[in-house]
Specification:
The chain is of the alpha+beta class. The protein contains five helices and six strands. The longest helix has 15 residues. It starts with 7 loop residues before the first strand and ends in a 7-residue tail after the last strand.
């Protein structure tokens, strides 16, 4: 169930586009970012807080390459009776190693989630515990063999639907 669509200004879109590219390792990264998007540092920080409160920005932080620190990943799928999905999802979500968890339409498997863990053994332990706690035995464990892409950059300034764009405060009519 998608949430309410946020209405973004053109400045918001420039800010979010710049944020996607990452911060420079400089003493005052917010000042540098503010200059890039045409804001004061104070206005930028205030707007970041607002965007976080709105849920547009979930968090600001580093994206660590899990492979570089020795982690391994897998995609899992379970066949869960529809009335048990919330209960099973709660069990799955209790593991910090679970990074994503979705209900999807599929003829057999309707709950899909990903796990990143330090070893295949830990992944197998988590899956065994999930099976024991939920009683769900019909599942798939699809370990990543090769990663082709694991990043998304949203087109916030180019050819996108502008219906959710509001005028910038203070901009001429």
């Amino acid at each position: 169930m998608p949430g309410k669509k946020a209405v973004l200004t053109d400045t918001d879109r420039r800010l979010l586009a710049a944020l996607q590219k990452g911060f420079s390792p400089v003493p005052e990264p917010f000042r540098e970012l503010a200059a890039q998007v045409g804001m004061t540092e104070e206005a930028l920080i205030a707007r970041l807080r607002e965007l976080k409160e709105m849920g547009v920005i979930r968090r600001l932080g580093a994206i660590i390459d899990s492979r570089k620190i020795g982690y391994t990943g897998t995609l899992c799928a379970l066949a869960v009776p529809p009335e048990r999905i919330p209960e099973v999802a709660e069990v799955i979500n209790s593991y910090p190693e679970v990074t994503h968890n979705y209900v999807r339409e599929h003829e057999t498997y309707n709950v899909w989630f990903t796990i990143l863990a330090p070893s295949h053994e830990r992944i197998n332990q988590i899956l065994q515990e999930i099976k024991e706690k939920t009683g769900i035995t019909q599942f798939l464990n699809l370990p990543a063999r090769r990663i082709f892409k694991i990043r998304v950059n949203f087109d916030l300034e180019g050819s996108h639907d502008r219906a959710g764009t509001a005028p910038d405060p203070g901009a001429g009519e």
